[in-house]
């Protein structure tokens, strides 16, 4: 069977390192087959791009295909992003990118197919590809934020971050993977600035991402006066903060790291909180996607034993 690799779909999936890809290939060859089925939509690969590439090099290896139904391409992207967020160890940059692309896709779904979250006070019923009074992206960002345990601001900034990363890759192919893998350390506000800039101004901003001076510059710590805040508010799209303050504030409180300085207890608390939120999100995701498995009595006992290990560890902190 000949399957299709869609660049847009594949581009949402964090790439494997050379070592990870080689290990996956060795595992498949050792097993003599691809154990997990390739998930497809209209013969387009949704999940399993690396496995498919490997079997193209080893046509003797059998594999199975699991077709799935999706409303449209946006629904596929949402599924991909949710699926990837629940798998593998991801960098903070990859998490932000996936949340941002999911938010963007869900907004487009909402625009073309109607918002299922429209309330009873909307002027007309949702649907038909029209956008109505209460049919807006805020309900979408709120839903996603609640699901991933972040704020709405994090979700909205994540979309701009993702768009900035993709815009940068148009000028310097390959920089997307460098940023998302953490190989190229960039301040989030610098990436977001690319998304907000005019097309003609973007290339210069992208080049600056590679300049050490722009990456290592200290973050200003001055507190602006009320007059300055009022002046910035007229142009700031995020609440009462300026563009830069919004990005930095979201970074410090929502998992988007700001520039590094001497570590403080706030830095430690941020890291611990982010780890805790990530654990809760991944456990909930596992329970939701494997509901029938974890509800079996014999399996539930194993899960509780594993949870007990974590509880005992937390109880012994500082002891």
Describe the structure.
With 319 residues, the protein is mainly alpha-helical. Among the domains are: 116 residues, no CATH class; 51 residues, no CATH class. Helices cover 61% and strands 3% of the residues. The chain has 16 helices and three strands. Strands 2-1-3 form a three-stranded mixed sheet. Strand 1 and strand 2 form a beta hairpin. Helix 6 crosses helix 7 and helix 9 runs antiparallel to helix 10. The chain is globular, with a radius of gyration of 22 Å.
In short:
With 319 residues, the protein is mostly helical. Helix content is 61%, strand content 3%. Among the domains are: 70-185, no CATH class; 265-315, no CATH class.
Describe this protein with a few key phrases.
single chain, mainly alpha, 61% helix, ParB/Sulfiredoxin_sf, ParB/Sulfiredoxin domain-containing protein
């Amino acid at each position: 069977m000949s399957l299709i690799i869609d660049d847009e779909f594949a581009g949402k999936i964090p790439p494997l390192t050379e070592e990870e890809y080689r290990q996956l290939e060795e595992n498949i060859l050792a097993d003599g087959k691809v154990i997990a089925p390739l998930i497809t939509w209209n013969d387009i690969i949704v999940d399993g791009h690396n496995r498919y590439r490997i079997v193209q090099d080893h046509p003797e290896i059998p594999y199975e295909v699991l077709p799935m139904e999706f409303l449209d391409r946006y629904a596929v992207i949402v599924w991909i992003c949710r699926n990837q967020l629940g798998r593998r160890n991801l960098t903070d940059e990859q998490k932000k990118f996936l949340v941002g692309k999911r938010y963007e896709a869900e907004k487009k779904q909402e625009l073309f197919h109607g918002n299922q979250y429209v309330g009873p006070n909307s002027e007309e019923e949702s649907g038909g590809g029209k956008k109505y009074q209460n049919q807006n992206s805020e309900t979408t960002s709120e839903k996603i934020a609640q699901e991933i345990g972040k704020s709405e601001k994090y979700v909205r900034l994540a979309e701009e971050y993702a768009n900035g990363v993709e815009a940068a890759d148009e000028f310097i192919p390959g920089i997307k993977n460098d940023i998302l893998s953490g190989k190229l350390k960039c301040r989030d506000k610098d990436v977001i600035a690319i998304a907000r800039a005019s097309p003609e101004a973007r290339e210069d901003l992208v080049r600056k991402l590679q300049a050490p001076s722009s990456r290592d510059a200290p973050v200003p710590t001055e507190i602006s006066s009320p007059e300055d805040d009022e002046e910035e508010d007229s142009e700031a799209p995020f609440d009462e903060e300026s563009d830069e303050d919004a990005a930095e504030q979201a970074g410090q409180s929502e998992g988007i790291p700001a520039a590094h300085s001497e570590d403080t207890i706030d830095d430690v608390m941020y890291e611990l909180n982010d780890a805790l939120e990530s654990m809760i999100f991944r456990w909930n995701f596992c329970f939701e996607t494997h509901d029938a498995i974890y509800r079996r009595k014999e399996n539930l006992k194993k899960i509780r034993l594993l949870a007990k290990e974590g509880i005992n560890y937390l109880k012994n902190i500082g002891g």
